[in-house]
Amino acid sequence: MRGMAGSRTYRTCAIVLDKTKLKETDLILTLLARDGREIRAVAKGARKPGSRLAARCELFCTVDLLLAKGRSLDVVSQADLVGAPLGAAPTYEAMQRASVIAEVASLCCFEDATDPFVFSISAKALRVLGSLQGDCPHMDLLVAAYVFKLLSHVGYRPDLSSCVACGDPALAFFSASAGGLLCSSCASSVAGAEAVDAEAVNWLRALLPLTFDELVLQHVDTGTSNLLLALSHAWAATHLDARLRAMEFLLGR
Ligand SMILES: [Zn+2]
Questions:
Q1: Which residues line ion ligand 1, judged by CB < 5 Å?
Q2: Which residues does the UniProt record annotate as the domain DNA replication/recombination mediator RecO N-terminal (predicted)?
């Protein structure tokens, strides 16, 4: 059945979201394919010293892959580096934020569902992140915007127009479980609602319509970017119903 071999392989471009060790020398790659599917594949021998496969499948890079269909996991037969958005020597700060982007991306992609937007927004966020080496407030602003944009795309868009409970335009709290902004009186009966001032409300409203490139040109201070990051964490953890360990680590929790 030699002729069948061709149908068992396929080529795709993908972002490397995660790498975990398998056996002595292998790696399992979690990949976000260009069509938005999640692929889990084995890179055999990738942990042997001097493995070319490992060098071409670095975290957060875009790779062109030839994969062989396997029974449970696919197998990487060839890999070519297409893009290293964080550059050849990424800073620790950039790697931390990229880990959060990859973590949220992996919760929003599935083996059996295509959604090219997930690939394109993740690739774009990583590229812009790579241009911000060392600029932590803008990196956090970018991550917060990425989380709210992607979550909105997959069906969890915050209501930022008026109080989600009563429609009052005077807004003073944000609650992920309530679905967005709240007035003071409604917030008093919502556990875990976070106080937000008028500036934070304006920032939240800017995250969805502005592009990443536009956002990183805005002036933002560390307090504001920390708050937006924390709110994006609450939003993602609540609506994806998952623990976000890289995000918790970035927030110092
Ligand atoms: Zn209200």
A1: 163, 165-166, 168, 183, 186
A2: 9-83
Pair of tokens at residue 243? 């623990």
The conformation of residue 159, written as its DSSP 8-state character, comes to: B
CATH code at 2-83: 2.40.50.140
Residue type at position 27: L
The ranges assigned to domains in the chain are 2-83, 92-250
**Residue 222: enclosing H or E segment and its boundaries?**
helix 222-239
Task: List, for residues 162-198, the tens digit of each pLDDT value.
Answer: 999 999 999 999 999 999 999 999 999 999 999 999 9
CATH homologous superfamily for the domain 92-250: Recombination protein O, C-terminal domain (1.20.1440.120)
Give pLDDT tens digits for 190-225: 999 999 999 999 999 999 999 999 999 999 999 999
